[in-house]
Amino acid sequence: MTISESNQHAIPSDTFISEFIDTLTFNEDGLIPAIAQQHDSGEVLMMAWMNAESIGETLRNNRVCYWSRSRGKLWRKGESSGQVQLLKNFRVDCDADTLLLEVDQTGPACHTGRRTCFYRVVEGDILKTDSEPLIDPETLYGK
Predict the structure, then answer these.
(1) Which of 13, 39, 66, 92 is most buried (most C-beta within 10 Å)?
(2) Ordered domains of the chain (ranges, CATH)
(3) DSSP state of 136
(4) Does 130 carry a binding-site annotation?
């Protein structure tokens, strides 16, 4: 399923959402991996987990919601940092076991204050950090 930018506010029906969720392949914990990608640049921002409830909420609100394994509850991206992800397209891979969310990310996606969680790169025998935080995490989360 794709929610196009021009049709972004067309919210799927509860019936469609329920039937769609039933087509997905969740792991033994009831989770499915979701990759967030900036819709206009293609930049891969992060990977997180979703469950049926977070998928339904995301599709109903066009604001991305994940499942936090560490907190054991829904995690509405940006609820503590203000760095929200607005859904542009919701894609499913061929095996229905991985999601690709094309989003419009406000500010950094990573809890380290960086734009992307994928800021470390292997170069030969070195694991190199290739970007600095945009915002200090203490400022981002008020801790």
Answers:
(1) 66
(2) 5-107 (3.10.20.810)
(3) -
(4) no
Query: Tens place of pLDDT for every residue, the chain, 143 residues?
Result: 444 444 455 899 999 999 999 999 999 999 999 999 999 999 999 999 999 999 999 999 999 999 999 999 999 988 888 889 999 999 999 999 999 999 999 999 998 999 999 999 999 999 999 999 998 888 877 75
65 is an annotated ligand-binding site residue: no
For residue 63, list its beta bridge partners. Answer: 86
51 Rama class: left (phi>0) / alpha (psi -120 to 50) / beta: beta
Asked whether residue 97 is marked as a ligand-binding residue, the answer is yes
Q: What's the predicted TM-score (pTM) here?
A: 0.88
Q: Is 22 annotated as a binding residue?
A: no
Q: Hey, what amino acid is at 54?
A: S
